[in-house]
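ok so for the tutorial part 2 we go from a plain amino acid sequence to predicted structure tokens. step 1 is just haveing the sequence, like this:
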Amino acid sequence: MLACCIIHNHIIGVDPYDFLMEEIYSKSEPIRRTISLSQREKREENREWITKGEMIVSTMWNDYNIQRN
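step 2 — the prediction. this is what the tokens look like for a chain of 69 residues:
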């Protein structure tokens, strides 16, 4: 579930005006998200996502190894 949420949020960040999102939100309020991040902010956000992804992978690997033993 967490991975799906992360992927969803990433897609929204990459293309907030995606046609699928328009179908979902067309009947409610419009999407008012703008992308105005500087290159520095983008790199910092990417580093945060990489760190989070590495933590998830590490936790999954450790859980797998514990279950095998």
